[in-house]
Automatic annotation (TrEMBL):
It comes from the Bacteria. Pfam families: SBP_bac_8. It comes from Lentzea guizhouensis. PANTHER family: ARABINOSE-BINDING PROTEIN-RELATED (PTHR43649), SUGAR BINDING SECRETED PROTEIN (PTHR43649:SF32). This is Sugar ABC transporter substrate-binding protein. Gene3D superfamilies: Periplasmic binding protein-like II (3.40.190.10). InterPro entries: Bact_solute-bd_prot1, SBP.
Length: 419
């Protein structure tokens, strides 16, 4: 049941007035997502229960193009989907334009209140005056994935319990990487310098911006320390030098080009999709993560005021982010739920991932969530700095540029991004 009010002329009522209709008279709701949300089967389930609804998904392979499209169409005033997914790194930009999104507390179902989610998850999508801009989908508690067969071939421990010593700290992780590449010709320790750097960066209380939204890239010693550790590992041959979510990166999973992968919970679905059935059982996941874990990633579903049927769109978004559906999404693609009730659900805690050597992935990541007491503040252009500044800068180091020169470039580009 939807509690629906008309906020502005741009927000449609709960009825069908102004809605997009299909040839057979159904209400078409569009939803724009990226990477893997695990919603494909849920869409079918929702349509079966709502025969007047037709869901059209616009799915982008990577987050950056999706968000570029979102902000372009937001500025143009037209062209957005009825439901738009927003990744946490871009949420601050959406919150700065919150007047262009519906207040889900007013237009959404009455039971979709902030206490459905972990407090820090809901707080991030709530404006200072109490408007809820996004329904939380997943979060990204961190664990470590690795290739058991490649570890064994290199003479490293391969059992999930035994490998914990290798992943205790970042120092021990990179030390193990030195041992691995010394034994394995043509196989790297990790996939991408940017992926390692991002995981390290997300562990800190303060990242690219402080809580007053001041850029602190140059003055934050943690960022420079992470940069040095990662680029030193690159210089010692530990990186496969792949760009995340590129076709070469996808192929790298299938061909075993690297042995470890920083694994927020949503990465399990990515690995299974890209590594393929021929590598089932070769990948394992352990709860151990260097320096204790953290959160990397997670998204929200928003309803722009451009939506021609915002009430029905909010109803769909609320249903997709209800505990029951988020558990199904996790079972489908490893997107770990952010809903309090879901985290205690037996179906989640007893869920077994057959691809990853029958690990009880639900219980593993539920334990990792408990290690996250707060999350890093994401300031303006945080996602842009991650994907368009530091990612390319680290790639340039992998391609031969001096690390100190690449750092200077990254700092300059970061300052330009927030001018």
């Amino acid at each position: 049941m939807v509690a629906c009010v008309v906020l502005t002329a741009a927000v449609a009522s709960c009825g069908t007035g102004g809605a997009n209709l299909t040839a057979d008279g159904k209400i078409e709701l569009t939803i724009a997502t990226f990477n893997e949300f695990g919603y494909e089967e849920l869409f079918k389930e929702y349509e079966a229960a709502h025969p007047d609804i037709k869901i059209t998904q616009r799915k982008t392979g990577q987050g950056a193009p999706h968000h570029q499209n979102l902000f372009t169409k937001l500025g143009a005033g037209s062209g957005l989907a009825d439901v738009e997914a927003v990744e946490e790194g871009y949420l601050s930009q959406v919150m700065a334009k919150s007047d262009q999104f519906t207040n889900l507390l007013e237009i959404g179902p009455a039971d979709a209140t902030p206490d459905r989610w972990l407090k820090w998850k809901a707080d991030a999508a709530t404006t200072p005056d109490g408007k809820l801009v996004g329904y939380g989908t997943d979060i990204g508690p961190l664990a470590m994935c690795y290739r058991k067969d490649l570890f064994a071939e290199a003479g490293l421990p391969s059992d999930p319990e035994e490998v914990k010593q290798l992943f205790a700290t970042w120092d021990s992780y990179f030390a193990a990487g030195d041992r691995f590449v010394a034994k394995m010709s043509g196989v790297a320790w990790f996939d991408s310098a940017a992926q390692i750097f991002n995981a390290m960066h997300n562990q800190h209380d303060v990242g690219y911006f402080d809580r007053s939204n001041t850029l602190v890239v140059e003055s934050n010693p943690d960022i420079r320390s992470d940069w040095t550790a990662v680029t030193n590992a690159v210089s010692r041959g530990q990186s496969a030098k792949l760009t995340a979510f590129s076709s070469e990166w996808n192929t790298g999973f299938k061909l075993g080009r690297f042995a470890t992968k920083t694994c927020p919970s949503w990465m399990l679905g990515v690995i299974e999709t890209q590594a393929g059935p021929e590598n089932a059982g070769k990948w394992a996941v352990t709860e151990a993560f260097p320096n204790g874990g953290g959160n990397w990633g997670g998204s929200y579903l928003t309803v722009p005021k451009q939506s021609r049927n915002a009430g029905r769109a909010a109803e769909l978004a609320a249903w997709l982010t209800a505990p029951e559906q988020q558990i199904k999404a996790f079972q489908a693609k490893g997107t770990f739920p952010s809903q309090v009730e879901a985290l205690e659900n037996r179906a989640l805690l007893e869920q077994v991932n057959t691809y990853f050597d029958n690990v009880r992935a639900g219980a593993l990541f539920a334990a990792q969530v408990q290690k996250v007491k707060a999350v890093q503040h994401k300031g303006p252009a945080d996602g842009q700095l991650q994907e368009n500044v530091f990612g390319p800068a680290l790639q340039s180091v992998e391609q031969g540029k001096r690390a100190d020169e690449a750092w200077d470039t990254a700092v300059k580009e970061a300052k330009k991004a927030v001018e």
